[in-house]
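worker-03 picked up job from queue 'complexes'. Input manifest follows; two sequence lines, order preserved.
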Amino acid sequence: MNRLKTSGYHLAMGLVSFLWVAPILWVIVISFRSFDDVAANGLGSLPHSFTFSTYKSAWEDADEFRALINSLLVTIPAVILSLGLASVAAYGLARYNIPFRRTVLLLMLMGNLLPPQILLIPISRFVELIGYYDTLIALIAVHVGFGLGFYTFVLHGFMRDLPREIQEAATIDGAGPGKIYASVILPLTRPALAALGALSFTWIFNDLLWSITVIRSGEKMPVTPALLGLQGLFVSSWNVIAAGTVIAAVPTVAVFLKFQKHFVGGLAIGAVK
Amino acid sequence: MFVFVPFAVEAVWVFWPALQGFWLALTSWDGLSAPRFVGFGNFSDMVSDPIFRTALKNTAIWLVLFGGLSVVGGFGMALLLQRERRGVGIYRAALFTPVVFSLVVTALIWRVFYQPDGLVDTILRTIGLGDLIRPWLADPDTALYAVIVPALWRQIGYVMVLYLAGLKAVDPALYEAARVDGASAWQRTRYVTIPQLKGVNSVVLSVIVIDSLRSFDIVWSMTKGGPYHSSELLSTYMYSTAFQSTQLGYASALAVVIFVLALAVILGYLIRAFREET
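worker-03 finished. Artifact:
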């Protein structure tokens, strides 16, 4: 009876899991099919061909290579800057008796909870005004500004729980606030930073809304919005679009696999607190 | 000083634009001439705007179907996959994989599916339901639901992870005690697990409502709100009003509506955060 239940469980869960990844596998299969094959047999049929030319089209003709570079040029500095600024703010708020610290913290968190729609028009105008419209720098700045509140809040919770004695010991040894931050607090916060780093990488890399608001020209688009342009470029060449989709998904999947534990841990940070 | 610089950055990029957004909602502005103050005119225009009403209705449907089903599905999967046993890691990974993808990637994966003669149509034809076939994303009757499915596909794994973390934090001794008292598996879930998950529930609820109201990417990548606004959400309507028909004042007012709808949840979240700090 128990064995029957166990195999029933695995059968059901195996089926669910298969259904869940099936769309991904199917798109990967299509991305290797030739155009003639798709045209003759339809998208719903099993493959009758195997080709890499789809990837070549997406990579070169659609210039996904450049789009990927743009994405990394935005994502990496944005992650480093926002975590750097957030950790400094969290350090100040968590370890020193700053007046109105709780108000400041909640105000910063509230900024992150705002629906981005309310910021779209003013931000696009502001960026134009200071002459940074259609630049990657503007996109980085938007991501840093909008993400800061949440990262500060999480890091603050983490730093607050570090024992007071460490800081006191360092103060007695003559270390100033800057030195304590860099050589005592920051190393201890590494797990939280890794979790937030993995999360924010995917968030920023996957962003569509800010990119299409701040950036106009095609050659500056990061890969996520560029993927939408691919649809216009290769109308109904779904095998090329599938290849482009696979390419755009690879970096976040890679980050996820590399930081799997941190990643899931990071998502859970909010839930358990 | 430590706090001031980051705070100033956020002030410039978030607080100041937000205030401007509220101000613009009270104006009529085409982006060229100066904004003209119209008071609450934009909001009274909404009442007689049929597209606004469709978008509002669709946002409500989105909240109920996307929000509700992802909580039910995510919680159910977390219950099924909470015990560490062979194979569970693989199942969890399978359900979680889509969360890593961007919504644009998700949208394209599913667009391939919904294409005429794509896999959906082929399967329906194979099982003899060929009559049901239609241009899923181009039919006003089905477009919204055809977009909700992929959104759910991605969200369920996310909610599952939140609940798995919550379930892990429940004291196992409670289950043991309930078991000794003769509680069935269902009773243990109902009277031990669910009350213990109160904290997680409120987080999930906030995340879901805020996510639903923000949902933009998936709809924009699949239908742009069409056909004939049938899959329009407030967020997509706001974007197209702002950047395609450049009615910047009216679009700002739409953004304020989204904000007001999210306000209760935002406040709840902040109050919770505030309590933790004390």
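worker-03 released lock.
Chain B is about 75% helix and 0% strand.
Chain B touches chain A through 95 residues (CB under 8 Å).
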